[in-house]
Amino acid sequence: MAPPADFGRPLQGWRLRAYTIIFEADTRAGRLFDLSLMVAVLLSLLLVMLESVASFRLQHAAWLSWAEYTFTALFTLEYVLRLACVRRPLRYASSFFGIVDLLAVLPIYLAFFFPELYALVDIRVLRLLRVFRILKLNNYVTAYLGLGRALRASASKILVFLSAVLMIVLIMGTIMYVVEGPENGYTSIPVSVYWAISTVTTVGFGDITPKTDLGRAIASVMMLLGWGVLAVPTGIMTAEMAAQRISETPAPTTRTCHECLREGLQADSHFCRHCGAPLPEYQRD
Amino acid sequence: MAPPADFGRPLQGWRLRAYTIIFEADTRAGRLFDLSLMVAVLLSLLLVMLESVASFRLQHAAWLSWAEYTFTALFTLEYVLRLACVRRPLRYASSFFGIVDLLAVLPIYLAFFFPELYALVDIRVLRLLRVFRILKLNNYVTAYLGLGRALRASASKILVFLSAVLMIVLIMGTIMYVVEGPENGYTSIPVSVYWAISTVTTVGFGDITPKTDLGRAIASVMMLLGWGVLAVPTGIMTAEMAAQRISETPAPTTRTCHECLREGLQADSHFCRHCGAPLPEYQRD
Amino acid sequence: MAPPADFGRPLQGWRLRAYTIIFEADTRAGRLFDLSLMVAVLLSLLLVMLESVASFRLQHAAWLSWAEYTFTALFTLEYVLRLACVRRPLRYASSFFGIVDLLAVLPIYLAFFFPELYALVDIRVLRLLRVFRILKLNNYVTAYLGLGRALRASASKILVFLSAVLMIVLIMGTIMYVVEGPENGYTSIPVSVYWAISTVTTVGFGDITPKTDLGRAIASVMMLLGWGVLAVPTGIMTAEMAAQRISETPAPTTRTCHECLREGLQADSHFCRHCGAPLPEYQRD
Amino acid sequence: MAPPADFGRPLQGWRLRAYTIIFEADTRAGRLFDLSLMVAVLLSLLLVMLESVASFRLQHAAWLSWAEYTFTALFTLEYVLRLACVRRPLRYASSFFGIVDLLAVLPIYLAFFFPELYALVDIRVLRLLRVFRILKLNNYVTAYLGLGRALRASASKILVFLSAVLMIVLIMGTIMYVVEGPENGYTSIPVSVYWAISTVTTVGFGDITPKTDLGRAIASVMMLLGWGVLAVPTGIMTAEMAAQRISETPAPTTRTCHECLREGLQADSHFCRHCGAPLPEYQRD
């Protein structure tokens, strides 16, 4: 780990250049790097998905393994480069994107020992989150932050709601296990709870269904319950978002009358609506 | 039942100490007791769930019945202790948590006679509701009360809506019973109503599905209906919650009358609405 | 049809008494009549539902047909009485409840010729709508009117939305018919449209499912579409209801300052917030 | 393509008359033309749908092909006429309705070579969009524009949400592919992702379902997730619509400045915000 005295010394030479290209996206080279990274990630995802299709895998075995090795080499090289050019490798390695970058290559090496884990390479889809950074989509970042804020603000309500749903689902699942029994597919309480969740959430796979009259009556109540209860999280989120939306909108609140100093004047007003003083043209940036 | 004259006499000696530990959660011992109770409830729930899995039950029959007896003894002892140390045992026994505590042990004893009821021991999940009391999660209690208030405030609208849905479901179920008939799985009106509920709530198990053209046309209408109608309870709840959310955020709560010191005055008031004192102009930053 | 000259002549004698009992619910006898009617309707519904269960029908054939004849006689008698005691029988017969009352007995007579129509007797569930009138549940009537108003206010938006959904469903169904074809269960365009509706509304019966890769990709898009689009009717209804809810809430707007006559004062204010005049205690009914 | 000098020369003679009838709907003939077009489109749609039903096709083969040729001839003739009478044929041909009109006839000709494409004739349902123009349903157009505006205003939020859902679905699908494997129906990653989408959107076809305990546990989490997450797009749309609904009902739009006669002044203004004229006290009833 870098000693504290290292704090002031900036990156220099090839490390600075590599850092600018790999970690930043404000220079031409940096943007190009990030864009080709996105393309590489998307191609490798496509590769993993196609490879999982049995018929495709058998036909194209030759170049598939070749492409696979290439992407593995590329992403490993990139990860090593990132570690090499960053000032505090450990801090990068333990950051969100550091872990994602590691997870993007790790399953390939693990697959030597546990071949069935190969598909988990897919987790590199998370690398695409960088796309928001590249495109500097301020609009999207605001939207994302807004969603996050609404979720956090209603977290305690959603937790209470979720714990209530979990209790209902456990009790209902147990009752159905007793009522229907293993002979109708409700082979154990965990399975019954799985069924209860699929019912209350209105998913309704239909792999397990009630066969007895009493079971169907209970299932009917659960469906109506789940359907009505779906209104609750929607209500929570919506109320939160509507409140945010309202506090977001009062665009012209900063326009102030120079005479009476009252604020909140509309952008297209020519006179103060409180004292009648003429207003200068409204300047927006 | 305790005589009325007993009203003033407080608990004393071991009963007071037991009461403080078992019923309250403000002392160290009390908190420890409640926490270990939670752990015991969770463990016993896990036990019941695992026991319902046939393969697990056969493998671990020995220690499962041992653990089962232990939990039964513990919860029975606890229930007796609660009855013993409380001033009015009947009032406790008939309270919500008293019934829950009884239901947590009753099924085990009933299971001697009706073994298939054993799984209902699961109902002790309701004991976990005490967790809110222990953690003193004021935030969560407020959220819980808020949800409850919104549900109660919109109860009459939801009841009207539910009765309308029940009528639709009964009529639609009967029509499908006539149209499709027993040969397509709609063996009786109750079964058809069960199917109609699963369709209108968009669960769609698929254990019974329309086979005739007319039946499929009617089912299509019902699906669109149910889908659109889902908007109604959501709208009811959301409107209620949004209204609460707005009344929750009383923007000017920090404006305080200098005379009577009551806060929560509106931003455009010129006089205190509690004592009539003139208010200085409200300053916002 | 009654001649216009009959307009002023009120009901008299036994017709007036019968009318008061059968059509109104403000006297003791009238309320008793309506209540026993509700019970009779509920019992006859239960009867029809039980009768549709094959095993039950075979066991209880004897008293079932007896009970059936009794209810038929009772409801027929009631319908004739209603026609006899009302001033304008045709107007009653063509009113909503008149038609419902007729539909409650008609299927039984039709069932002599078309036995499979017997189950439609169930339509008499609509008679239960009278329950709102009997119980004088003003609260519920207000809720019902509120729901109706919100639905009507957003009718044009919902129609536009529904027509868009129908077009999407028709095009998507046709595309799936071309892509999957009869060999995968999509036997005709109407069947494909039925499937598309069950997919877009998130019902998902699973009686018909895409088997080809392209079909599954299209189905995935449709599911995400339907899921996101579900937000639209909910949004329409909720926005409408929230707007109603807001216009519903300003309970104390009628409290007016006796001095400056400004209204909208809060119920717990002691002084006018505009002019500082002391307010008399607020009277609610 | 028409030369720029052609800009000022208006349509004349039969082209003007044809244009007025075919493209406009304000004359009697024009309205009649559009109405018969709607009827023809609806009839041809019905024809295509019936034709896809195998039993119907075999019975009515004779007149079906006759009707088919008639509609093809009619719509082709109409398309040619439209091209002939419009001033800038290319601009019409590349407009939305121009493409729709072409797509309404193209599949029939393509069907000579690829018979299975015949059903795509259905795409002519889009021609029905003209119905809004004929009926001059201003109300509906406003509703339609309102929906469009709400969708556009929340587009960035919905995109962020959708990209998050796609990532979740890809990762969850891959995990299920690893956990359940081809032997339980999860034959490839694309198939698993298709299943994940059907689960998260609460469609739940049930053609593929988890069989292992771990798979069912993951599926349960996904169902709860999808159910709760459904609140997000609903919240986004609803908040947007509620905000529009509020700005739609500009309560004081009828207050007008007596000097400059501009309307829409706020109820508590003392001076016109456009010309600064003092306003008389605002009178409400």
Give the SSE map.
Four copies of one chain form a homotetramer.
Chain A: H1 13-23, H2 28-51, H3 54-59, H4 61-85, H5 89-93, H6 96-103, H7 106-110, H8 131-134, H9 138-153, H10 155-180, H11 189-200, H12 213-229, H13 231-248
Question: Can you give a write-up of this model?
Answer:
Chain A is an all-alpha fold. The first copy, chain A, has two domains: 4-136, Up-down Bundle (Four Helix Bundle (Hemerythrin (Met), subunit A)), CATH 1.20.120; 141-248, Helix Hairpins, CATH 1.10.287. Helices cover 62% and strands 0% of the residues of chain A. Chain A has helices at residues 13-23, 28-51, 54-59, 61-85, 89-93, 96-103, 106-110, 131-134, 138-153, 155-180, 189-200, 213-229, 231-248. In chain A, helix 9 (138-153) packs across helix 13 (231-248). Residues 1-7 and 249-253 of chain A have low confidence and may be disordered. The interface between A and D is large, with 66 and 58 residues.
Q: How far do the termini of chain A sit from each other?
A: 45 Å
User: Which regions of chain A contain 5 or more consecutive residues with pLDDT less than 50?
Assistant: 1-7, 249-253
Q: Largest interface here, residues on each chain?
A: A-D, 66 and 58 residues
Give me the Rg of chain A, rounded. 28 Å
Protein name (chains A, B, C, D): Ion transporter
Domain Ion transport (chains A, B, C, D): 31-244
InterPro entries (chains A, B, C, D): Ion_trans_dom, VG_K_chnl
Membrane topology (chains A, B, C, D): Multi-pass membrane protein
